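Exercise 7.
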Amino acid sequence: MDVLYAKGSATAAEIRDALPDAPSYSAVRALLRILEDKGHARHEPQGPRYVYFPQVSRERARRSALKRLVSTFFEGSAAQAAAALIGSETLSKDEVTRLSAMLERARKGERA
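Solution. The predicted structure, written as tokens, is:
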């Protein structure tokens, strides 16, 4: 999906070429079929090839993926997911400051 969002549209071969350590062409096609079945992507025939397009916005896909991640690995707890990120030591000082400000706004009942 990252390739489709970045390019706007792409063939299976273009998607494969854009991936580091790309899987086989048939694996890319299989993944595209799965993405279509789930409603995340669609295709249009252009000559002998199919051109794939994102079907949902990046933001909607991001929210959906995050919801599944939190549900699967953190028992549905956003707090546990946030704690895992904070504990991973991958956050910069600027990110910690932004998160602190978001938490403070949430504490006051404001939207982030």
